[in-house]
Specification:
Rossmann fold, eight-stranded mixed beta sheet, alpha/beta, 44% helix, globular
Length: 272
């Protein structure tokens, strides 16, 4: 089972769009997939559940041990896709957990009884370093970072890389590694071309070949409680995300470029 965190310290990079599109794309390919919404804004939950009001236990209840993961996970309208949803209560849970022992390993403990049910677990996260993000990193193995192709593209990336290393060492999660950087919201102008060229020069094959274009279809899909994969399947953004799905499947859990463990990705992070 592969566990993938979509994370970035910078907002507006398309984390939720990437998480939901990747999860839907994997499910469509026949891979049993779980998406965990670890962002208190609940954007992934809104999109995957079609804008429906969330009833019953959510991730906050699971982390606070008021519900079992099995009680909070539910099926979606997309075949092969389940979700552990989030609500605004997750923000309160983040504060409450600060005083708890083992707070950063709550998700790993809660998921242990159900691990193995899915081929992929995709975790959406908020653009902040928090106890909730730490829980996602302690539980997962792969980190994909959406990078907005603007002048501040690298903002927070070094800090995130440092956090990955700290989690590896503090919790013995040797499998955790930076699996790849994904260029998102890209326009074909000189600034974005320069940013992309700079990223590829600095990080080489750690940057996905897939490039997600800036698209009004993405926002149009979100207003309808859909992913762009469902709303506009032939749009450039949907086709780019479908290519990303292929890359993720092909890499088999290693960092882009074919490393065999998280160690090589970690060394790249140090070098950055």
């Amino acid at each position: 089972m592969r566990k993938i965190v979509i994370a970035s310290a910078k907002g507006g990079t398309g984390k939720s769009t990437t998480a939901t599109s990747l999860a839907v794309g994997l499910a469509r390919r026949g891979h049993k997939t779980l998406i965990i919404d670890a962002d208190g804004q609940g954007n992934a939950s809104w999109t995957i559940l079609g804008g429906a009001e969330i009833e019953g236990p959510t991730l906050a209840d699971v982390l606070l041990r008021d519900a079992l993961a099995d009680e909070a996970i539910r099926e979606t309208a997309t075949p092969n896709l389940d979700i552990l949803p989030a609500a605004a209560s997750l923000n309160g849970a983040n504060v409450a957990l600060v005083q708890e022992l083992g707070r950063d390993a709550r998700l790993r403990s809660a998921m242990a009884p159900v691990d193995g049910r899915w081929a992929f677990v995709v975790i959406d996260t908020a653009p902040a370093f928090s106890t909730i993000l730490a829980n996602a990193l302690v539980y997962a193995a792969e980190v994909i970072v959406p990078v907005d192709a603007g002048m501040y593209a690298m903002l927070g990336l070094v800090q995130l890389q440092s956090t990955i290393m700290e989690v590896r060492e503090a919790y013995g999660n040797e499998a955790l590694h930076l699996a790849g950087l994904l260029l998102t919201r890209v326009s074909r102008n000189n600034v974005h071309r320069d940013v992309e060229a700079g990223l590829r020069e600095r990080f080489g094959p750690l940057v996905f070949k897939s490039v997600i274009p800036l698209s009004v279809q993405v926002e149009a899909a979100h207003t309808r409680g859909q992913t762009v994969m469902d709303f506009a399947r032939k749009s450039p953004a949907a086709l780019a995300y479908d290519q990303l799905v292929s890359e993720v499947i092909e890499h088999g859990g290693t960092e882009i470029g074919g490393g065999k463990s998280g160690k090589r990705g970690a060394r790249k992070a140090d070098a950055a």
